Amino acid sequence: MTWNIHKSWKTQLEEEFSAPYFKTLTTFVTKEYNEQKVYPKQEDIFAAFNHCTFQDTRVVIIGQDPYHGPNQANGLCFSVQDGVAHPPSLVNIFKELGTDLQKPYPKSGNLESWAKQGILLLNATLTVRAHEAGSHQKKGWEVFTDAVIKKISEEKADVIFLLWGGFAKKKAKLIDKSKHHILTSGHPSPLSANRGYWFGNKCFSTTNDILMQLRKDPINW
C-alpha cells in the first residue's frame, strides 16, 4: 500500500513512517482492504492531512473512529460525504454551531471547508471495518496519531485543540498547555449531549475569539 499524505506531514512524521510499529500497521491495513470492506476509501485515509497542511494547522478536533456505515466516512473526523444523512453526533455539532453563531443548519455534512481553513479533523484511528466499530483500534493507528498531536504541540504555538468527550480529553497530556489552547466539553453524541454535557459549550465562538486575539482570521464555520 502506498500512503498518500501531504509532503508537509511526510517531512514532520518521517520517523513514524519508518518505525517498526508502522510497518506492522501497514501490513494489517493492506490485508484488511484486500479481504474486507473497510472505510474510508484507501485514497481518503489521510484526507485530514491532505486538506490541512502542517503549516496551516491552527485548530485540531480529535475524533475516535471513522464512521463504519456505507458511504459515510471521508477521512475527516465527524464529517460525511456530500449527500449522506448526518449521523447523530454531527447533527448535534451543527445544532450547537447554530445556537452559538446564529448560523443556519447546513445541508452538507462534509467538513472539507473547515479543513481547508486550517482545522485538522483527526480521528485517533484512521480506518475501520464496515459495520464493526473499533475494529481497527489498538493496531498502531493511535501510536501514529498521538505522535501527530505531540509533533504539533512541539513544533507549533497557539494551536487550539478542541477535546470533545472523555476519549479526546485524555489527549490533553500530549499537549504543551503553556503555549497552546485547550477547549474541552462533553461529546456531541446523543448520550452525552442529552445529559447536558455538549449543548451551550460555545466552542466555535470561543475558538474564533482566541484566533482574533492572536490577530488571525476567524474560522468561517
Automatic annotation (TrEMBL):
Subcellular location: Cytoplasm
A GO term, aspect molecular function: uracil DNA N-glycosylase activity
Family: Belongs to the uracil-DNA glycosylase (UDG) superfamily. UNG family.
Recorded superkingdom: Bacteria
GO cellular component: cytoplasm
EC number annotated for this UniProt entry: 3.2.2.27
Keyword entries, A-Z: Cytoplasm, DNA damage, DNA repair, Hydrolase
Enzymatic reactions: Hydrolyzes single-stranded DNA or mismatched double-stranded DNA and polynucleotides, releasing free uracil
InterPro entries: UDG_fam1, Ura-DNA_Glyclase_AS, Uracil-DNA_glycosylase-like, Uracil-DNA_glycosylase-like_sf
Its biological purpose: Excises uracil residues from the DNA which can arise as a result of misincorporation of dUMP residues by DNA polymerase or due to deamination of cytosine.
SUPFAM superfamilies in UniProt: Uracil-DNA glycosylase-like (SSF52141)
Organism of origin: Cellulophaga baltica
Location of the Uracil-DNA glycosylase-like domain: 50-211
Chief site of localization: cytoplasm
Protein's recorded name: Uracil-DNA glycosylase
Enzyme class: hydrolase
Active site: 65 (proton acceptor)
One of the GO biological process terms: base-excision repair, AP site formation via deaminated base removal
